[in-house]
Amino acid sequence: MQSPCKESEAVPFRNSVFVIPNSTQMPFVKIVVYTPLSHADKIRQVLAQSGAGHIGNYDFCSFSVKGIGRFRPIKGAKPFVGQEGKIEEVEEERIETICEQKEVQQIIKEVKKIHPYEEPAIDVYPVI
């Protein structure tokens, strides 16, 4: 199967080729932020106030699921929860929402200002 895209845009998968749109074809990304339950509402608020979560005639759109985050602070860490060298488990919330690709850097910057973790887990995925 011949792809109409440049080689760098075509992603082979089994016997098919998936075409990854460029940023003009794919103006939105999904932002996923993991946070302790104690800060979930603050994170949602900052995401929305920074421009994320706007879908059509709705704003403050997001989806959340609760789970357990695990980590071990190593030498030099200044953990919000836990202590150096000890594996920690924390009840966390995974918050996901969308935003325009051109706004993602600023939104992440605003989230990091209020996120309690020294190294917050934030993922960004293309929305295709």
Explain how this protein is built.
The chain is 16% helix and 34% strand. It is an alpha+beta fold. It has a single domain, classed as Alpha-Beta Plaits (2-Layer Sandwich). Strands 4-5-3-6 form a four-stranded antiparallel beta sheet, with helices on one face. Strands 1-2 form a two-stranded antiparallel ribbon. Strand 1 (10-13) and strand 2 (16-19) form a beta hairpin.
Descriptive key words:
Alpha-Beta Plaits; disordered N terminus; about 130 residues; 6 strands; 4-stranded antiparallel β-sheet; two-stranded antiparallel sheet; 2 helices; alpha+beta; elongated
Q: What is the 3D form?
A: elongated
How much of the sequence lies in strands comes to: 25-35%
Alpha-carbon Rg, integer: 18 Å
Residue stretches low in confidence (pLDDT < 50, at least 5 long) are 1-8
Largest sheet: 4 strands, antiparallel
Helix content: 10-25%
Domain count: 1
Strand arrangement, major sheet: 4-5-3-6
* CATH topology (level 3) name: Alpha-Beta Plaits
Distance between the termini: 21 Å
Task: Tell me, rounded to a whole number, the average pLDDT.
Answer: 87
The helix tally amounts to 2
Number of strands: 6
CATH architecture descriptor name: 2-Layer Sandwich
Q: Tell me the name of the CATH class.
A: Alpha Beta
Report the order of strands and helices.
Answer: EEEHEEHE
Q: Strand pairing plus helix content: what structural class?
A: alpha+beta
